[in-house]
Structures are given as C-alpha cells and as structure tokens.
Amino acid sequence: SAKACGNISNTEVNEWVSDVDEVTDQIHKILDGTITDFDEFDRKMALKERVKQIRQEELNTKKEQFYLYGVEGKGEGKHYKWWCRRCFVEYMIDLPNNACTRCKQADKMMTQDARRKELMGKLEVFKEDKAKHSWRKDKWIRWKKSQALLGRSRNINYKAWEYWEPDTDTEDEGEPILPRHNPEFLAMEADMKQRHKKQEDKSKTAQKCRQRGNQCMKDGDFVGAIEHYEEGLEYKRSLKALWTNKALAELKIFRWHDAIQSCNKVIEYSEIFEDGFKRSADACFKAFVRRALALRALHQWGEALKDLEEALQLFPKDKETRDLLEKTKVAYQEVDVVRQQQKESEGKQDPPLIVPGPVRVEIEESEDEEDAEALAAMNLHYANSLSGLGKQEFTDLLAQLKSNAGERSAFCARGACNGSCVRAADGHKMKINTIEELSEPSRLDAVLRDAERCCLLWRKGRGNVVPVCDDVKQMTSGGEAQPIEESREEVAFLHVTAPRAISVLHILAKLSDHHCALTTPAMRHIWPLLENVEWRQDVLELLMEWSQ
C-alpha cells in the first residue's frame, strides 16, 4: 500500500482532502438542520460528480491526442519510440501499422535507435570534416608565416591559392564591400535610386491610365479608352496590356490598320526580348487573335489563318478561337473558288468595262420621273452603287442572290489587294506599307457605302449632323439649329437606295453565316433608319438576322 500511495500526485491528494472537508461540512449541516431539501442536495451532488467525470474525460482525450499525434521534434532525444522524417514528429507509443498519424505514411518512420545511429553517423562525418578544415587552416597559417620571413617576391605565387581557406565554415560570400565614403560612388548610387523611383512612378501612372481606359471601355467610350491607353504608353511602352487593350478599342471603332499596328508591338516585343511567346502567353494570344480579327475585316483571310494558328499553339483548347479558325477557313476557301472562277471567265470573255464618272441610271416608267432625273444627275465617286440599277436589274440581282450561292460569294468577294498588309520575312510582324482603299472592292463594299451614305442623308434631313460649307448658310442668325434643306438628288438617292440596300443585306445575312458577318459593318448605318415607318419592318427583320 505504501508503494501505491507513492504513485499518487500532490494534486490528487489535495482534491481528496477537499472532498473530505466538503463531505464533513455537509454532514454537520444535515445534523444542524441547515439542509432539509434532500432532493436538491442529491441533485447538486450528482451535478458535481458529472462535472468531475467531464473533466476526467477531457483529460483522457488530451492525453490520447498527445500520444496519438505526437510532438514536433528532430528526434535528438531519447524519450520517444518512433520519429517521422517527413513531418519531424516524435511519438511516445506504437502506432497502428507504424504509420504517421499526420501524413498517413509509413515509409519515413524511424525507431529511436535507428534515428540515433543516423545522427551519430552524421556527427562522425562532421568531426572528420572539422579535422580536415583545422589541418588546412593550420597549414595556411604556417605558410603565411614562412612567406613573411622570406619577404615579398616580384612574381606572383599562384600556389598560394591552393592553401587558401575561408574565414568561416560556410560558403556564403556575405555582403559586398562597397566604397561607402567614395563621393563618386555615392553620387552614382543616388542616381540609380532616383532612376529606379522614376521607373516605379511611371509604372504606377501607366497602370492608372490602363484602369481609366478599361472604365471607358465598360462605358462604351472607345475613343476615350484609346486616348487613356496612349497616355499610359507614354509612361511605359513595354506594358503589353496597354497595347492589347488599345487594339480591342480600335477594333470596336473599325480602325483595322491601327489595331494591326498595336498588336504588332506586342508580338515584336515578345519575339525579340522574350525569345518567343510562351513567357507572355496571355498577351501574345490576345495580340494574335485581335490582329486576326482586323485582318478578317480587311478580307485578308490567309494572313488571319496564320495568326489564329499561332494563337492556338499558345492555348489549344480555346473554343472561340477554334470556331473563328473554322469560319476563316471557310471564307478563305470561298474566296479562292471565286477567284478561280473569275480567272476562267476572264479567259473566255472580256471583262465588263467600268466607266468612272457620273452614273447613268435607267429607271422604269413606273418610277417617279423626277427621281430618275435627279439620280441621273448625281455624280457618285464609286461604282456598283445600287442606285445605278434599273428596277428590273435590281429584281434580277435579288433573284440571283437568293437562288445561287456562287453568285452570293462572287458578290462579296474582293479583288486582288493592293498590298497594304504584308507579312514580314520572319512570319509574325505585319508591315503596313500604305493605308488605302482596295484596288478592286467587292459589290458588297459598294452596298456598305450606299448604306453609309443613306444614313448620313437621313440624319442630315433630321438635323442630326454638323452643317458644313453651304449648309451653314441655312442656319438661322439666332444660332438655333434648323433642319438643313436637302437637295432633290439626295432625297431621290435616299428614297431609292435605302430599301434596296436593306433588301440585299437581309438576303446575305439570312442565307449564310459568313456573309452575315461580312455585312455587320453596316449595322451602325442601318439602325438609325428605324425612324422611317416605311422601312421599319424591313430594318427590324435585318437586325434580327444580325442578332442571331
């Protein structure tokens, strides 16, 4: 019993004495009549007993967690059984399957004896290295003393490097020794710090310009966005996000050549300074895709294909780019077929002669004679206008576009390009030598110009354009804007050409997805014509085709 009492801790003895005192006090209260409600007394006693049980359960849980999850350590002591090399945890007990409870692995578990042998082996290796180091250091010191006795030699003794030893056991070179008190060095250091601070300030300003440009893009102010991006480029021209965002804004306002130039900057910078496009894959991907969109707008289908293929090499799983590549391939093949047919037809018959200058219009008797005279007197500066067709000719054109897919392709196909966009010898940069109109625009281009002219004439008739030249004379002296008087030729052109352009665009947009995409530049010129009740239904149907 004495041995058992020796295992009892002072805390347990104090708790037992406290319980004895509490029981004695409760007995005295029962005898004195202080405690009369024995049910309440029993409930309190049961509650105290339950509290003791909960405390004991918590203590047992903590002990179990302590032994089960171990304590962090390097296995340098002796008061453990197992040590995990991966987690650096010491365990006092044997674990299930000898697996660490933290990493759940058993391959890095070591017993206390194995760990001690490993540490002792490392200690012996360290002692050997220390002894070798001490020997080499002593040899170096003795050599220096002998050289001091012999005096200085005129020749350099390179054997001295064989005896050199560092002052410390580590291979760290430490902080470089700088000439702190040299005025020239201090001036150079101050200049470097000042230049670095200026570069940081410029980078921050460029980022702020980019954020303002992005906000303008969200608000639909694309011209303002371009101005902010260009301002940011004045501070940091190597920021690729400014170039790609600027290209996107230029695409929104149909500045195709400017967008190509902006994308060229990103591609050229990455190719020269980053030795490829992988390091800035995201920016280069955007540059290739957006340049391809600009090239598609210029009907440069072959060049657009190359850019889209480059983009897919960076992100092969991008679905939108893959779809755009397939559409571009279809357009390229279609244009190739049309040009082959044109070459064959040129060998069989002479091409029709296009006479520049005033367009003589043949108008059927059913049309208004005044419109006929007015249109005949107009001098259009481009050929193939729909206003130059007679009623029967226009009816035949609509019938051909509806029934013949080849006719639609030929109608939308442009002739040979004048070489305004040429790919450089390296195969990536696009050189824009000239920014001119195409030498052989398609008949669709003429329809787009008709739509643009109709929009301008309509807005002019509504008083929604800025008057120029002779129109200024028609404004009142008070400065209030008045509807500008339209000439008879302009009214006739709008009356005849607007419904024709809407009809042609509707047929092309309805029968082919590719041709629908080619007609979308006319959207900004067509939607203002919704104000005209006579054309409203046709305009709504055309807008519906574009929205699908």
Could you write a compact summary of the structure shown?
With 548 residues, the protein is mainly alpha-helical.
Describe it for me?
The chain is mainly alpha-helical and 548 residues long. It has 19 helices and six strands. Strands 1-3-2-4 form a four-stranded antiparallel beta sheet. It has a two-stranded antiparallel ribbon with strand order 5-6. Helix 10 (301-314) packs antiparallel against helix 11 and helix 12 packs across helix 16 (488-511). The relative contact order is 0.04.
Spatial order of the strands forming the largest sheet: 1-3-2-4
Stretches where pLDDT falls below 50 for ≥5 residues? 352-367, 468-485
Helix-strand makeup class: mainly alpha
Using only CA atoms, what is the Rg? Answer: 45 Å
Largest sheet: 4 strands, antiparallel
Give me some keywords for this one.
four-stranded antiparallel β-sheet; 62% helix; 19 helices; elongated; 548 residues; mainly alpha
Ordered list of secondary-structure elements with their pairings:
Elements: H1 2-6, H2 10-32, H3 38-69, E1 71-72, E2 82-84, E3 89-91, E4 109-111, H4 112-150, H5 183-219, H6 222-235, H7 240-252, H8 256-273, H9 281-297, H10 301-314, H11 319-348, H12 369-377, H13 391-403, H14 405-412, E5 421-423, E6 430-432, H15 443-462, H16 488-511, H17 513-519, H18 523-526, H19 536-547
Antiparallel strand pairs: 1-3, 2-3, 2-4, 5-6
